[in-house]
Amino acid sequence: MRLNYHILTILLLILSGCTQETQNRISRSIQNWTGTDGILEVYAGDKLVKRFMEIDKLTTAKGTDSDKDRPYRFGYGFNDKNLNGKIDDDEKKRVYFEFSDYSTSYIFYEDKDK
C-alpha cells in the first residue's frame, strides 16, 4: 500500500509540472482509452447532409495567444459518407473535421446502441 502512495505522489508531481495543454492531451488520451462513442449529424435545413461516428469528443477551439474561444468546434471520427448509420469498409479512416459553432445546424449525441 505504501508503494501505491509513492507512485501516486510522483504522478501528481509530474502532472503539476505539465503545461495546461499537456494536461489536456493526457486527459483526452485517458478519455480515448476509456472510450466514448458520439455521433455528429450536420443538417442543411431539415436534410441530413453529413454524419461523423465514433467521436470521442468535440472541442471548442481556443486562440493560440489568447484564452478566447474561437467560433468553431472540431473533433475526430469516421465519415459516414452514405449516411447508412454504420462504418463501411471504405469509411474506416478516422478523419479530422471542424464546423462553425454559429452557423451550422448540428446534433451531437451518444450512440447508446453499442
Any idea what the shape is? extended
SSE order, as H and E? HHEEEEEE
Largest sheet: 6 strands, antiparallel
Strand content: 35-45%
Helical residue percent band = 25-40%
Radius of gyration: 18 Å
Number of domains: 2
- How many angstroms separate the termini? 37 Å
Count of separate DSSP helical elements: 2
> What's the mean pLDDT score?
79
Low-pLDDT runs: 31-35
The class by helix and strand makeup works out as alpha+beta
> In total, how many beta strands?
6
Characteristic key phrases:
single chain, 114 residues, alpha+beta, 2 domains, 2 helices, 26% helix
In terms of topology, how is this protein built?
Elements: H1 2-16, H2 20-34, E1 38-44, E2 47-55, E3 59-62, E4 69-79, E5 94-100, E6 105-110
Antiparallel strand pairs: 1-2, 1-6, 2-4, 3-4, 4-5
